[in-house]
Amino acid sequence: EAGVAQSPRYKIIEKRQSVAFWCNPISGHATLYWYQQILGQGPKLLIQFQNNGVVDDSQLPKDRFSAERLKGVDSTLKIQPAKLEDSAVYLCASSPGTSGGLEQYFGPGTRLTVT
Amino acid sequence: QKEVEQNSGPLSVPEGAIASLNCTYSDRGSQSFFWYRQYSGKSPELIMFIYSNGDKEDGRFTAQLNKASQYVSLLIRDSQPSDSATYLCAVNTNAGKSTFGDGTTLTVKP
């Protein structure tokens, strides 16, 4: 079974530029998460989808971040415009169910550097 | 107060010793508890999950949960150098909201 796929793996941009990340979850997984992980910290949830609906986006900086999950499968996360403090690893994870009792499977992450 | 707090670490143990990692959480509505291991430069991978009070054992790993004290721990017996990593505690509500701690970095010295 293929794991969670993410691209790109690395991205360097200048502040005020825009960037987009892509995630393809494990086939059949209903729940998809985007996390931001700053060095030395745990993953911070940005947005959670169940199928193609948003369950939680309370920590998503909506003035600059947006995310969508079309047809309940792939997802994209966009930052526009980027700030220096957005430098982090962006992790996508998926979970097979819609309840909270199931484990998450993480993709390899995208390391973003904003200069 | 953070929603999920872990030992600040780093934690260093000799090879063969027991490593004890602790986690406390603030949301009494939390229902499921997970331990993930994250090697440097890699993404988290699941080690264990626990839903009910008590102990759950899987090989060298034992997870312990005490909902009354809002406390969950992970014991690693016979620690190996390959166990050196950051261990993340994650707490889920029934609705699937997932909150991670900042992790405890474990070093197992040969």
Characterization of the model:
The complex is a heterodimer of chains A (about 120) and B (about 110). Chain A is mainly beta and about 120 residues long. Chain A contains no helices and eleven strands. In chain A, a hairpin with a 6-residue loop joins strand 7 and strand 8. The radius of gyration of chain A is 13 Å and the shape is globular. Chain B is mostly beta strands and about 110 residues long. Helices cover about 0% and strands about 60% of the residues of chain B. In chain B, strands 2, 4, 5, 9, 10 and 11 form a six-stranded mixed sheet that branches. In chain B, a hairpin with a 2-residue loop joins strand 6 and strand 7. The mean pLDDT of chain B is about 95. Classes of the chains: A mainly beta (about 120), B mainly beta (about 110). The interface between A and B is medium-sized, with 27 and 25 residues.
List the topology elements.
The complex is a heterodimer of chains A (115) and B (110).
Chain A: E1 5-7, E2 10-13, E3 19-24, E4 31-37, E5 44-50, E6 53-56, E7 65-68, E8 75-79, E9 88-95, E10 105-106, E11 110-114
Parallel strand pairs in A: 2-11
Antiparallel strand pairs in A: 1-3, 3-8, 4-5, 4-9, 5-6, 7-8, 9-10, 9-11
Chain B: E1 4-6, E2 11-14, E3 19-25, E4 30-38, E5 45-50, E6 54-58, E7 61-66, E8 71-76, E9 85-93, E10 98-100, E11 104-109
Parallel strand pairs in B: 2-11
Antiparallel strand pairs in B: 1-3, 3-8, 4-5, 4-9, 6-7, 7-8, 9-10, 9-11
